[in-house]
## 1
Amino acid sequence: MSEVSEDEPFFEVGGDRISPDQLGEGLARSLIDFVSGHGGHTAVVEELRRIDGNIDVVVLNMTTCVSQEPKFEVLPEERLAVAFINDEPAIVPLRKDFPLTPHSYGLPVESVLPGSMTICLDDRPWEDAKADYSGAEIIRRVISWFGRVDTGDVDDALQLPHTIFLPAEQTIVMSSKLQAKFCDPAKPPVFLRLKSLGESDKYLVAEAAEIAETSDPTGDAVGAFVGFTLGVRAQNSGAMWHRPQHLGHLRYMLAGGQEDLLDLLRSRLDEILRNPGPDLERLYQFRLLFQFVVFNEGHDNVEPMFLGTEASLGEIGVATGLLFETPRGVGHSYGRCLPIGEIDEELVEGIRLVSANLSFSFEGEVATIYAGNDEEWRAGIGKSVVMLGAGSIGSQCITTLVREGAFEKLTIVDDDIFAPHNLARHVLRGPALGNSKTAMLSDDLRAIRADLCIETISEKISTTQPSETLNEALATSDRILDFTASLGASRTISAISQRSRAISAFFNPAGSSVVVLQEDASKTLDLATLEALYYAEICHNKSLFDHLRPGDQAVVSGGQCRAVTSRIPASRAAILSSIAASELGKVMSSPDPSITIASINADGGTSMHRSIPAIGKMSLDAAGWKICLAGAVARRLQKLREAHLPSETGGILLGVVDHARKRIEVSMGLEAPPDSSGSPSSFERGVQGTIDSIAEARSRTMHQLTYIGEWHSHPRGAQTAPSPTDAAQLVLLREELLAEQRPPVMVIVGDSGTNPISLEVYQ
Amino acid sequence: MTATITSFPIGNADSTRLTLADGQRLLFDFADMGKSDGSDVSFDLLAAIKDDLRADRKPKLSVLCFTHLDRDHCFGAEDSFHWSHSPSRQGEERIKYGELWVPAAAIIETELDCKDAKIVQAEAQHRLIKGEGIKVFSSPKKLEDWLKRRNLTLKSREHCIVHAGEPLDNFTLSGSAKAEFFPHCPLSWTQDDDGEVNRNEHSIVLHVTFREGSRDTKLLLGSDVDSDTLSAIVRSTKRHGNEERLEWDVLKLFHHCSYKALNKDGKEDDPTKPVPDVKWLMEEQGQYRSIIISSSQKIPLPGSKEDNDQPPHRKAANYYKKLQNGRNGTFKVTMDDPKKPIKVKISSSGASFLAAPAVLPASSAAAKPMRAG
């Protein structure tokens, strides 16, 4: 840093004046040529100098183009030094009271460049950026930088959000819990052990420990440290500063008349040494790890920086005048200086500081930030979930969601063992073979996020009723994630009254689509109802006609004909699982129900079909059966009625029949066959094509839809109660369905308003 | 869009374009000096005005104003604009404009020496007789006489007359233009007192207020008036309690940085000492971080051959520079960059320079029509 008289408004550049002829063919010449020929009203070359033997400096008078009310006190004209170090330009404002702004950084104390800071034009490594640079580009970027400083929108789209300190060589990884202890200036110092992370010497993991444990580090520990945060937050408007190299640099670390940070440090050390407790001698041997917390005014955030010493607390105490060394063998190694002595400048400059960035351990909050999510999202999707099924889609989805910061507590439910064929698409690997999927997956997830609380239940929920433990988990969790890909499981879940809201995700048999069904917040549309609506979607939308067609033949995986697995490539399973995870992340924070079908097209692209069914459902109990009609189905029937008014119309009802749970879900009503006859007072459903229509619907839905009864409309003004004709029809239907051992369903559609639909079942 | 003020590098001559918030263009003076014989001006003003209209798909200027009819304010006008009074001077290649604004002197003066000035005058007279498409600034007695000779009355042409101290219709801060024009000069009574036309002193001086967001930014559009006229303007404005109409964030400087605007008898002082009223106008009414634009040649170095009686005057420039330095303002000279105009942008935080087009990659080329054969 150049030294100049305090009276001068500008830093002197120093070095020797040179002529343009002495420049090489690099960027400095390009800049001179551009400004001389085209600088116009924007830039004027004031002088050209060479400092430190080989650094060419172009001094410019720049018109900054800032307005009359800039957000930072930049003047309409500024004198700038553009210094070229190995052709890389550094832009140094020469005005001594140039404001501290984001995207500028302080020059190291030892820098040969004039000024105290440089402005940051480009975040990219120079090797990447230099191809874009010419003299004109430098001027453009400077003008652009000033333009952003003028408006206060300083972060360029191409620049990373600024930080206060330039990145350090090392990074300390710390859990948020430990960091919280560290951060509280009112609390006693933290004793901790630093360990290398794997083979890297760039990352150190901090672990809390008791003083007695930490005093004798062994194994992979780097050392025992006493740590604290300085109780003052330095103000800094966003300029980036070089990190101090030794204890003496603390005095110059932050420009702008801040408090002397070395004094602050000494005060804190004094407090610690004043109340040492029984481990004083051990304390003297500890090294120091302290944190400065800098409040970034421009962005209203706090940025920590860690500084560690290789010197011990005892040595630091001597350098700072707090301690003196005692003769060997006489009590403690050090004695307290009373009163406190002077700081020994030479000694403090000899105490090297190693700076380190802070990296939080990969925990939920941090993962959320990395994923671009926020706490609101995290709370919205539920913090405690029960995951049913730990197969391919489940393991992949849950891994993705956990990486994105989702969940605090996870209960994984599956009774399966990880088998060789599972390696095709599961996240687990060879070492997990033969072990419980839940246990192995649980280890895998903990290895990603140590903060996750995971419980496992070895159980298969399908036709059997859940155990008490599982019931408890289902009732107390925030969400149930059904990855079982089992109709039985989702129908069993629907039948449980005391449980949380469920969401189901599964692949179609061909492995070309993934389906996500979410219940609404009130669980009016439960998974069983959503299943019926999902089939209706398949029948109504041409693009989904082949959705449930069987895919490649399943292969026998376990030597028995029932032990089959699908033939789906891992790449497709990964794509679809990722889509499902993304969809879960989106819809789980919404109170609405949803049906999402995402498909991989023939060309490799993906398409998405999403519907949000209207919440509402009619249901009635009859003959031990429960019959349900979702509002969305009723609406479709209303539309068919309206299209035929004033005449009546009607047709066949298709639905899902669950004999095990004695439940019928009305899925859809077919249109009247062409040979039907309807008048304002009567309707006769025809027969042409009916068998084919039912067969087609069954075929499209893997035979899940079946004939369940009839629907018809009543004319305007008429009630939806069954007429005598309707009652006779019901009797007839009953006869027809006797063989099926289930009641017939009749739906009568009338005027909108109260009771627009009548759901009738033969009693 | 934000309003802009553009002053073109055409030597000791004037042409300033205002682009208002609603996109309409108003051109104050047009002197295409690059087309005059022996000129050292290289800037093609006609092309710049035409290209700008074309780029923004504007069929015409809203207003063409000649502050007065000196050669350095209207050179090349004859061949550049569409003149409704002269069928031989019309055509698609000519620039069209809505209203013509001139001082009363431009109607009544009898001793014009420049052919462009004569064409402007003929057009102005033609429009005034028709009673449409013109604003005449001030109504001295001689204008009334001129109308009488054509069997017209001042009253019948009142809608064409603009009086000092009365904001122009059609431009309001709350309207789409977000601008207000307040004329300060010429003053009718001074013209009556003077008797004969004094072209410089009877020229148009306008104060423009731009509104952007909650901020008003003010421009004083000076012409070639001297310190006497400026003093009269100041006194008259104060008398009417309209001091805010002389506040300025941007000043298009008077008379190409002549000392006469500061103090017509102050040739020797360095820096020039302004007379009291002009001192007030400069020092009290100019705002913090304000901008002065001198439409002139470069400020001469001491002792150079340009350091003579002709503007720009170095000593006057010294006054302005010192004044602006003291309040973090700027003083810019159009000919400091003979290739690019000075462009000022009006935003909700006031006036600021717009980086010249060449500072953006190839934008200058992109803004011009290109042909290939």
## 2
Amino acid sequence: MAEAQVIQLHGDDPRDRSLPKDESPEQPASERPASAWERRAAAGLAFLRRRLTGEYEVDEFGFDAELTESTVLPAARQLYRKWFRTEVIGVNNIPADSGALIVANHAGGLWALDGVMTATAVHEETPDHRFLRMLGADLVFTTPVLGPLARKTGSTLACNPDAERLLSTGQLVGVWPEGFKGIGKPFSERYKLQRFGRGGFVSAALRTGAPIIPTSIVGSEEIHPMLGNARTLARVLGLPYFPLTPTFPWLGPLGLVPLPSKWYIEFGDPIETAQYGPEAAEDPMLVFELTDRVREQIQTTLYRLLMQRRSIWR
Amino acid sequence: MGSVVLITGVSRHLSSRLAGRLAADPAIERVIGVDTVPPSRADLDLLGRTEFVRADIRNPLIGKVISQAAVDTVVHASVTATPHGAGGRTPMKELNVIGTMQLLAACQKSDTVSRLVVKSTTAVYGTSSRDPAIFTEDMSAKSLPVSGYAKDAVEVEGYVRGFIRRRPDIEVSLLRFANFIGPYIETPLTRYFQLPIVPTALGFDPRLQLLHETDAIEILRLATTSSRPGTFNAAGDGALLLSQAIRRAGRIGVPVPALAVSLVGRTVRRSGMVDFSPEQMQFLNFGRVVCNERLKSEFGYQPRYSTAEAFDSFLTGRPVEPVITPSLIRSGEAAAARLLGVRPQPSTADRMVKHG
């Protein structure tokens, strides 16, 4: 029998090479190079082992890059490619290795899928497969299961200290300043930008000198057309709104399936903030002005994309 | 003239080790340890030439000790998290808060004291879903802790701030420590991770940040022997998720629904095995991470252990027998690989092999 050859499989620690490998002779794959399937199976098992022994890294925000890359993103990619057939425009506007603030319109009625799809777009389309660190409402982090999942996939609470810390360490940060006003608006107001919070995101960008990338998402408004809002029920449940769509809650869990609209995500021309200096964050006039500029740029792009779109579905 | 150091809570784990380190330092003339209970027999050797005064810091006697010995450095390390040690919650609060008031009053009157080191906790930041992911020293809790140790610590810090205003000539180092861990220290957290079945809050996975006990002692020693005034977060780099820590320890985590958590907590607490207070239960939902930049730059200390390394040191330094051993998982992997007819990937360095 030929000497067992050691094939360095991707994804494992480089320190491995120095370790003796204990391969028992009866292992069938040791005589010939492993096929792609075998490599994948072995990598999958190694992944499971690392998960079970806790041998992975999370950052201080709780972001688990390995988990995100190997379980959440592959699932999101299916939705991104097959279900929504997403087209991305202007990916060159995302810096290759420095911090930037991606600001986008919010929609979706039931799910804020636009966040997940934008993060998938950033990871898929940037050359270095960058992660998007999203800022979420506190309701997300109070909710069991959803809260920890949001943290593990790189989200954190929408607040200036967190945003500034991420931006100053060169991360891409995603923010949806309309918040619940954006996702919870009726279908008749689709693609009409709501109020943009209090401009906190602009001051975070100013303080860190990070460029703002106004991002426009088309297709997200049609996945769960919100025809009504059961206000009383929402109040009872402690939710900001309770959506009534053609399918939800009438069809039960089936109502959670998003309609397969065609999506466009356009990363617009960056608005630089470095020239103003960090003190400018204390200048409310400038903050308002920049907030308006970002908002206007997104709104104009949304109208243009809607004009160009031939159909909701294709 | 060498300095005279007074340490409160000297019978406790960290303070006794700090006293031992200071006693070994020839630049320090006298080390006076104060506590309500005498140090354990095992710690006696370690304490060296430390002089022990059995006193309650709630008693004005403490002022006499300070003036008679001409103490110049006071290390206030007796604020405690564990009601068991102090005999229940009410005496614990008394000792923490009233004791601090008495001690600070004595320091304020003294004309020899020139430095005060206060051991506080990152629990003063509270723990909730509405908090930033990482606390810096100038942040405060969104909702003030309403009970227990965290509340005591907030009140203690309030008195310390008042003291700084009244005696600006005295250097004060306020050290906010993250959860301690290590091979020897006993805390609610170390006992928690030694339970064979570890209850967790269903649907939550908090971030933990730890500080190795040797780093904690070194930080206290530096603050005592040199001028490092200010408020500092003292915590190791990085974070671990609770689920991850449980897996690394080879424990079995059992998620318990929120309502049952307090019930289970009370039962477990009553059993005396683990001393978990309500705010620590809340801690199991959201966890807490602080920024240690100021410790590294301004204070000038880089913790030797990161959070993950400190946790490893805890696992390997004492008999924490894993319930699920890594080798069990590895053999499971090998079996599955054989079943599929593939070769398993080589594993990373056997971190926990020392469990043996």
## 3
Amino acid sequence: MELEKEETVLDQNRAPIYEALQTFRQMRVVPFDVPGHKRGRGNPELTAFLGERCVGIDVNSMKPLDNLCHPVSVIREAERLAADAFGAAYAFLMVGGTTSSVQSMVLSTCKRGDKIILPRNVHRSVINALVLCGAVPVYVNPEVDRRLGISLGMQREQVARAIAQNPDAVAVLVNNPTYYGVCSDIRAIVQMAHDANMYCLADEAHGTHFYFGTGMPLSAMEAGADMAAVSMHKSGGSLTQSSFLLIGPRVNAGHVRQIINLTQTTSGSYLLMSSLDISRRNLALRGREIFSRVMEMAGYAREEVNAIGGYYAYGSELINGNSIFNFDPIKLSVHTRDIGLAGIEVYDILRDEYDIQIEFGDIGNILAYLSIGDRPQEVERLVSALAEIRRRYQKDSSGLLSQEYIDPVVVTSPQEAFYAKKRSLPLRESVGCVCSEFVMCYPPGIPILAPGEKITKEILDYIEYAKVKGCSMTGPEDPDILRLNVLE
Amino acid sequence: MELWFSEFHAPDVKHSIRVNRHLYSQKSDYQQIDIFDTPEFGRVLALDGNVQLTERDEFIYDEMITHVPMAVHPAISDILVIGAGDGGVVKELARYDQVRRIDLVEMDPDVVKACRTYLPENASRLDDSRVHIYYDNALRFIRRCTEQYDLIIVDSTDPFGPSEGYFTREFYGICYNALREDGIMVNQQGSPFYQHDAEAMQRSHKRIVSTFPISRVYQAHIPTYAAGYWLFGFASKKYHPVDDLDTARWLSLNLQTKYYTTKLHVGAFYLPAFLERMLEEVEQSDAAKR
């Protein structure tokens, strides 16, 4: 694939995939190709449910619509437009979720046995990628805010130390931001990584809006990072499972395309791709205005939640210049422990009694996700429901576990542990063994245990407490998490 | 030329009113506001294409949502009215000398403006010195109030538009919190007839039942509303809507009404069998949950 500057001037008003699908619709092409539902005719119940306009563009790759595995026309144009909108050297349309973007970052830069420096509070997709490629994690333990019980960003000195101790590492990965909205000093980390001849990768699953806002934290591409996984479907408004993988000038786009094609479908969905195309256009043209509105709403919500009393909706006041270098202004993260309820309990009450679904609740916090689609009247409902939950359920908060960061002891690489001979043990009997699988609350999907880590009593206490409070736990083979697989 | 205004009462049912003239049409920040002049119903206010009131039958709604609680609670002095930008509810409440304060919270200033101009009779008491109009989101307004009203009247549009938030559990909860220990909340509860409306009515009844110790439903016949058959909710911390009706006290006030009577007050709480069953269904599921 060539990446020389092409002659045409990029016009962000264009949406090439969308336009090609519009033309395609008008042509009334007779399908003797897949998908077999043939514009929905073969599946009337599905068509009635999703609508004819939707199933009518659920089509296969063909010349006028390009091919995601080897884009040469409209998909390539859409990718160039996306790169331009995000300030990247190139952008890849991804249809396997940001999970596949994250995995492609890791697989593009790490081989078997390579070291990668990363914070422990990464998404499971990062460690999954290590299982796939056999790279070895070097964890930078994030600082923990004791009051809130959340992991923060990576401190500059810790990253510097990890780099100095592991000069053979190939990449540094940064959450920009974390699920809760915490940003590390990504510009400094990029600089340190590049000085040590390492790549800097950014998980920006929660940072799409950084590229389109005023007064937002720095985006990875602007900071000079080499690759960034951007969940366009989270704050950006595209369909679930669609995502962008951005790369900087130091990365070979052709190599990344090959890596993506190792695991990505050869039947990329045009519903997903057109949603990326249209959403990119929307953000390029109106993103600043949209996110300044969202920012204002989030600021208002924080003030109102804090006015209720008991709750703590945190924001930029936490910024400390290092482990909280910046804070995402559109995140509505609320600490709930002081009203005597675990975050997960508030999360469940909001859904069961108030018909309000928020993003997640953990031991001490909830996160309400504000984005491009929110309106003030729903924010009023959320704040009022929180006020009501406090009035009706507030209790003494002593006895509630605070969420502490548990330092992982990495015994073997995730890949070795995952594929090693193992046996299944009842949870409590597994203390001291090396775990061969993941344990996590989902969401947020940040592992409590990852393959290759030592199981401690502290960790088991935490798992049991989270289960009792109603966290939805995933990862192990045993769905009830009464047993764990450990290395023999 | 024939000009008709039509409104869907259900996906397969349409109600049409002949129109003389379209007097006002405006898209506000919240909704589409229209006022028509019609031969049968006089002036008609529609929000997002749904009839809110007509000069001809507004008295039924406005009297039933106000006099029922006023005849039960012996000393209502501070009242909060939600929605009601047309002024009809305030017009009835302002007839009681005992009332000291009426706070009206309406989100859309354009509704009030349009009604002052085109429905002056309805809006006639909005300038009463006891009336204070706040243009605000009602959830936001009420959230800040604790035990300061004797009566809250929820005069909202239906639960599928900008008023959706006024049919929620959090809304009823903050209303409860804003009422004094013997306070009453009355709300328009929709219609039980068409399926879509009936389900919404059941949902909101369930939420009220789980919030207030006393919660009863009463009915009235309103020709221009869906099925011509409308419900109100009476939710209360202390007073029972029928047992605590003080007929002598209300009659002594000598208020002339066109629809409400104290006999009708009692009768309005006797509901048809199908509706009783619908209400019991959600009341029992709430009781079972406790």
## 4
Amino acid sequence: MAGGRATGSGLSGTSPSTGGRALIIFIVLSISLFTASVRGGETGVLGTIRSGFSTVTTPFRLVGSAITAPFYGLGNIFSNLTADQATLSELQEENERLVQRNIELEEKAQLADRLAALMEIQSTYNLQSIAARVISGSTDSWSSTIIIDKGSAAGLSVGMPVMDASGVIGQIISVSPTSSVVRLIYDENSSIPAMIQSNRAHGILNGSASGGLTLDLVRSDLNVDIDAIVVTSGLGGVYPKGLPIGRVTIVERNPGALYLEISVEAYARVQSLEEVLVITSLTDEQRASADDISEADAQEMSAVNNVPEVQTLAQSPDEDEG
Amino acid sequence: MQGIDKNTKKRLTAILAVICCVLQLSIAPNLPFFGGRANFMLIYAALMAQLFGGRYGVIAGFLAGLFFDFCSTSPIGLMALLLTVCAYVLGFEVRNKLADDFSVTVTQFSIAALAVSSAYSLALVLVEDAGFFQALFMRALPTAVITVICYLPFASILSRNRTNFTVSPRRGGSNRLH
């Protein structure tokens, strides 16, 4: 190594460039771009270029989606490892026979089912929406997003909520003429106003890097059951009120804490998303009413007013001992 | 003064660029690995740096990073900055490192992949207010691992054919691809 370097570099001015000057130039350029990008956001010049770039690269994403579709089943191999080998072999043989005969019909039937489910939910909730197909997942590891095959040319814009037949999946964060990027509810930057359907307890549903969902800011004096249904609250005017999101899986009540720690399992399975609905506009009934807003405010105020009471209760054992 | 076989160099650069860009757009998004996705642009930048090094590697690193930034939803310029620095460090000696011991080359790349992924995660923690440990262990680490796995076939093929790509520094201060 040292020999190669000594031979290659030399001490005279004739040595090959190590790229020091280029390094400085491109570092300055990168930092400038970074600053401009952070300041300008998706609406700036760089956002526009990125939108154009997304349009140009859409065909590659479509091809990649088609190529990798058969490999999605690989994930099931790991879960099947725990099953009995004989059972697996029998199931495999049977599955192969069935697949040979039914693969085409099954595919069409599934598509029809999915579209019917989407139509049903569109009709049930009276949604003004556009159907779109998922063409790709996130290209990087640091965001939970999907790319759909409809963009500004189809009337989509940033901020529109997106759902599948089972519930809310996210929100559009950038659009190009032919495609849009949807931030999934699992993304750590995602926050959705939500509430427990049974007792109308309002909170904010947040994503995390681990892929879990937590319902925050629900008062600790409210009773939340496991398996309680979580729906959108409609506050903020982005998501229609009452759309299903998921169910409560864990409720933790810490002594002295103002709010409960609630884990939520989403109904939507983003790993197998193929068709989605983009909600393009809300009717008056779908927006949070003045009563809903008052109710949420009242809950929040109640939580704040309960602070001394909670502290007093927490201190009372010590006082008794004293 | 011996001349550089520029055609071979350009051809190799272009072929690797096309392969890595297509893989970044089509394969990386659809094959997640414990929450991480392969960074083929890091692989491209590293290969360019390890094969040619110097200014050539730095430019390739910057452009690869910029491509990654435009593909992602994160701020533009962040990966460009990291890959520029990464390519400079990996290509500092301006010679074909893929002709070295394979395990050393892979080790160097693994360290670079972990450093770039971690730095990117930490930068996003600052910019986007993400969780520190989650970003580091659930994003950076899986990304580094899957990227190293995807790097292996490239490095293996190129190092096996190293006699075709060997850069030999000469008196004239240029490199040659045999």
